[in-house]
Design a protein that fits this description.
Number of strands: 7
Largest sheet: 7 strands, mixed
Number of helices: 9
Strand order of the largest sheet: 3-2-1-4-5-7-6
CATH topology: Rossmann fold
Radius of gyration: 21 Å
Distance between the termini: 57 Å
Structural class: alpha/beta
CATH superfamily: Vaccinia Virus protein VP39
CATH class: Alpha Beta
Mean pLDDT: 91
Strand content: 15-25%
Helix content: 25-40%
Number of domains: 1
C-alpha cells in the first residue's frame, strides 16, 4: 500500500483524512507537491508550528511515508492530549519564538528537512520564529510559511505598506540571495532595520547565508536551503566566434563591473 501511495498528491491525503481534523486551503496542495517533491520519499524530519486538532500531522505522516519524525508545536497545552496512531508524531508545547522551545526541539530532533509555519500568523511571531528556527534547517530543506494573507491585515500586525509586516520581511530575502552584488559595505543588520531586527545572531546570519531560493505564491512563501554560503553567480561564459551586433573582447578572465562604485547612488 505504501508503494501505491508514495506518488499520490497532497490533495488525495487531505480528502481521505478520516481521523483528527485538519484545516488547509485547497490552493496550498499543489504548492506542497511542487516545493517538497525532492523530499517525498526520503527519511525526513518535519516540524509544523500550529497543531490545532492534529489532523495535518497525520496527513504529513502519510504524505512523507518514509519520514522519521513528525513534530508539532503549539502554545496551547490542550494539544498535548491529542491521540495519534503513529509513533512518529510528537507534540511539543511551547512558544515557537522562545529559545527554550528551540532547545526542546533539539533534544528530540536536532535538524529538520521541512518546517511549516501555520501558527499565530502575526507578523512579529512569523519573523521571530523564522529567524530562530531557520538555524535548524538541513541543507536542501524547505521552510514554508502559510497564510501570509494575514500580513496585509491590521489585526495580524500587517498592511500593504507596513515595513515590518511578515510579507515585507520575506521580500527582503531576495536581496540576501543577491548579496554578492551589493556595494558600499551594507550588511544584513542594515537590510532588516525596517522590520525590527537588530544585532542579528551569528547563527541566524549563518543560516540566512545558506538560502538558495525563495518562491512566493498566493498566501504562501517557500524558502529552500543550500549547502553553501552565499552562492555566487559563478563564472561568466562568452563563447562563439561571430559577434555581429555587440563586440565583446571578454576572454574568460576577471571582469570588472562598470557600475561597481555606488557612492553617488542614493538607493545603495
Amino acid at each position: 500500500m505504501t508503494h501505491l501511495l508514495k506518488d499520490r498528491s497532497l490533495k488525495y491525503f487531505v480528502e481521505t483524512q478520516n481521523n483528527n481534523v485538519l484545516d488547509k486551503w485547497e490552493g496550498y496542495f499543489s504548492i506542497y507537491d511542487c516545493e517538497t517533491e525532492h523530499l517525498r520519499n526520503k527519511p525526513i524530519n518535519l516540524l509544523e508550528i500550529g497543531v490545532q486538532n492534529g489532523g495535518s500531522l497525520e496527513v504529513w505522516c502519510k504524505y512523507f511515508s518514509k519520514s522519521k519524525n513528525i513534530i508539532g508545536v503549539d502554545i496551547d497545552p490542550s494539544c498535548s492530549g491529542i491521540s495519534f496512531n503513529d509513533e512518529r508524531i510528537k507534540v511539543i508545547i511551547g512558544d515557537s519564538n522562545s529559545t527554550s522551545l528551540k532547545e526542546k526541539l533539539q533534544n528530540v530532533c536536532p535538524h529538520f528537512d521541512v518546517i511549516i509555519d501555520d501558527g499565530s500568523h502575526k507578523s512579529y511571531d512569523v519573523i521571530k520564529t523564522f529567524t530562530e528556527l531557520i538555524q535548524l534547517m538541513n541543507s536542501n530543506g524547505v521552510y514554508i510559511i502559510e497564510d501570509l494573507h494575514c500580513s496585509y491585515w491590521q489585526n495580524f500586525q500587517g498592511g500593504v505598506e507596513k515595513p515590518d509586516s511578515s510579507i515585507n520581511f520575506f521580500k527582503k530575502l531576495v536581496d540576501v540571495i543577491n548579496i554578492e552584488h551589493w556595494r558600499n559595505e551594507k550588511d544584513l543588520n542594515w537590510l532588516f532595520r525596517d522590520v525590527g531586527l537588530v544585532n542579528i545572531k551569528r547563527e541566524t546570519m549563518e543560516a540566512l547565508s545558506r538560502i538558495n531560493s525563495i518562491s512566493f505564491y498566493n498566501s504562501m512563501c517557500s524558502v529552500k536551503m543550500s549547502d553553501n554560503k552565499y552562492q555566487t553567480i559563478g563564472k561568466r561564459f562568452v563563447k562563439g566566434n561571430v559577434a555581429t551586433i555587440v563586440k565583446n573582447d571578454f576572454d574568460g578572465g576577471e571582469i570588472s563591473d562598470v557600475d561597481e562604485q555606488q557612492d553617488l547612488n542614493p538607493f545603495s
